[in-house]
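Tutorial, part two.
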Amino acid sequence: MKTRHLKVSALLLAATLLTSSCVGSFSLFGRVAKWNTHATSSKFLNEIIFILISPAYAVCAVADALVLNTIEFWSG
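Running the prediction step on this input gives:
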């Protein structure tokens, strides 16, 4: 019974930490998106660029979510 309470407490603590509502500005992701939308004057070429560099969006989003937004939160 005691281990069950410990597991539930650990789960609730983890849920609290993961849902702390610290969204951050996602500045790196925003910079990539801004660059992509202004790369050329043609929206069709910008779409091709988007498709080609789409893995960069994923990398930037993860880096922002896990590293940069955490630094931004703790440094103010």
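The chain has a mean pLDDT of 85. In part three we will examine how such features are distributed along the chain.
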